[in-house]
Amino acid sequence: MPSDTEQTRLVKLKEVAKITAGLPARKKMEEDPQGNMRVIRPKDTAAWRRVNHDELIRIRFKGRKIESYFLKPGDILFFGRSGQSHSVVLESPVPENTAAAPSFMVLRIKDDKTLPHYLNWYLNSDRAQKYFMAEAGGSFQRVVTKSVLENLEVPLPEQNDQERIVRIWYLWLKEERLTRQRLKHREEMVQVGIDGILGGGMK
């Protein structure tokens, strides 16, 4: 938790991040192994999971100002369609000529006072998700528009407190992952025991 709540400002997302669209929508994104651009699609992302750049497809992009679509470390990709929303922050290194699919909005931090990982944490938080659901509707076809995203109110504490929040959250994710692994291992051991009982009873 922030050490001094009085130092936490409430800002609109558009005040701290520039929001742009992904690639222009096309009829179909044709994969081309020799293409001049890598593309991150929604299937390549999930909240709290790093993008695996080795799995990205390549396409042949023929539009103008191709460089304007290229992503860099610290950019945040936001997906808000089909009744779901999540974001992911891009870690270094980001391969050259990598862009976001049309279904994403790209957030780029405007200054060095806002940490990308903190903003990504808040976008995935329950509070932000409730806002998206209320503003964009709760149906399966819900779409979070640029206007809705821009006007999300973000509590912005001092940078050291942003770092603390991110660190605490990622420690929790690590603990949760280890707990799931232990439970999975325990389940397998229990199943072995049950199979042994059933096998012995059937002889």
Overview of the molecule:
- 35% of the residues lie in helices and 20% in strands.
- By secondary structure, the protein is of the alpha+beta class.
- The chain has one domain: Adenine-n6-DNA-methyltransferase TaqI, Chain A, domain 2 (Alpha-Beta Complex).
- The protein has a 4-stranded antiparallel β-sheet with strand order 2-8-5-6. The protein has a 3-stranded mixed β-sheet with strand order 4-3-7, with no helix packed on it.
- A hairpin with a 2-residue loop joins strand 5 and strand 6.
Number of domains: 1
Number of helices: 5
Q: Cα distance, first to last residue? A: 60 Å
Cross-sheet strand order for the largest sheet: 2-8-5-6
Unreliably modeled segments? 1-5
The CATH architecture name reads Alpha-Beta Complex
Pfam family, one: Methylase_S
GO biological process, one term: DNA restriction-modification system
Organism: Desulfonatronospira thiodismutans ASO3-1
Domain Type I restriction modification DNA specificity: 11-168
Features:
5 helices, three-stranded mixed β-sheet, 35% helix, Adenine-n6-DNA-methyltransferase TaqI, Chain A, domain 2, disordered N terminus, 203 residues, globular, alpha+beta, four-stranded antiparallel β-sheet
Ordered list of secondary-structure elements with their pairings:
Elements: E1 9-12, H1 13-16, E2 17-21, E3 37-40, E4 57-59, E5 76-81, E6 84-89, E7 98-100, E8 104-109, H2 116-123, H3 126-136, H4 146-150, E9 153-156, H5 159-201
Parallel strand pairs: 3-7
Antiparallel strand pairs: 1-9, 2-8, 3-4, 5-6, 5-8
